Amino acid sequence: MKTSKPASLSTAPKQLGLKLEIAAEREIDGVGMGVLNNGAPFLTLRGLARMCGVDHAQIIRITSAWQEYPARPREQKIKELIRAAGADDSIAFIAIPRAGTIYHAVPDAVCMAVLEYYAFEAKGDYGHAAKSFRTLARKGFQEFIYSQVGWNPSGSADIAWQQFHDRVSLVYHTVPMGYFSVFKEIADLMVTLLRQGASLGNKFIPDISVGIAWAKYWNSENLEVLYGNRIKYEHNYPNYFPQSASNPQSPYCYPDEALGEFRKWIREAYIPNQMPIYLGNKVKDKELPASAVQAALEAFAPNLLNGKNGLK
User: How far apart are CA 312 and CA 309, in angstroms?
Assistant: First the structure.
């Protein structure tokens, strides 16, 4: 009977075909975990290794040998534990392309089987794995991950608020004294959308659109002559945002003296002329629901909905 070549982490059969994305992710005490956009909880390879109390390389060796046939005793036992739980033992992880790399999410059944193997089957002292296994078995893997990352299985509002909070917390103290940032100044736009039930996610970054438009206005009107020079500051995205791959970002912040000018521009130029187009494109791309966008536009400027830029 022939033995196949070890399946690599980036090319294992079936493991690259799922069109899934990471909806929420956190690292707690070195344990990476999260939830996919279909609601499936997971641990990262390193997170699973940490919970097992073993070196990351051991988990890599297990997943690399997952497609070998016949299976080695360790992988065979782990697969038996997965099948005993009534789960699919055909994949060791779900591979998700993100920011030019492959991200490896280990499903709940595989995590529990690997933990059970190290806790009760493997030779040696694996007390940490036993403790982790009992914790997850008592609370339930899904409930444990959901509670840790703040995932609401009945809707996306909680995680959307958490994502917004995570962004705010990373930039709150990074703008130098005497300057304002576009991100903080348009927080009311994002909050209004959240209150209307929009799931903003890590693809909805309105401050980029507003920042580009404001920068064009700033340059075209030579506002630095009136208010002084703008400067750059450090802006970081949460690690589960695709944009985090290029952290730290260096957007501009503007002199406080120009704040009144910015707010007037937002009120009289951006909201009536550009915001409906931006949000309308997000609806077309199915990144925002039309109902939430209409409610947000109504909250900002009711007359927009009946005008040429309104959403029907």
Answer: 9
Q: Are residues 211 and 288 in the same domain?
A: yes
Residues β-bridged to residue 27: 32
Q: Give the angle 111-113-114 at the CA atoms, nearest 5°.
A: 65
Q: Which residue has the tokens 């009992």?
A: 134
Asked whether the beta carbons of 231 and 88 are under 8 A apart, the reply is no
Q: What is the DSSP letter of 170?
A: H
Domain with 222 in it: 157-306
Same domain, 68 and 119: yes
Residues 92 and 139 in one domain: yes
Answer left, alpha or beta for residue 218, where phi above 0 means left and psi between -120 and 50 means alpha.
alpha
Residue-wise pLDDT tens digits, 265-283: 988 898 888 888 888 887 8
In-domain check, residue 311: no
Please spell the DSSP secondary structure of 79-124, one letter per residue.
HHHHHHTT---S-S-EEEEETTEEEEEEEHHHHHHHHHIIIIISSS
287 found inside a domain: yes
Which residue has 């997952």 as its token pair? 66
Measured distance CA(216)–CA(265) in Å, rounded = 12
Is the domain of 171 the same as that of 117?
no
Amino acid at 50: R
pLDDT of 257 strictly over 60: yes
CA distance 212 to 127: 54
pTM (two decimals):
0.52
Q: 161 and 301 share a domain?
A: yes
CB 92 within 8 A of CB 15: yes
Nearest in space to 7 (alpha carbons), one of 73, 53, 75, 55: 75
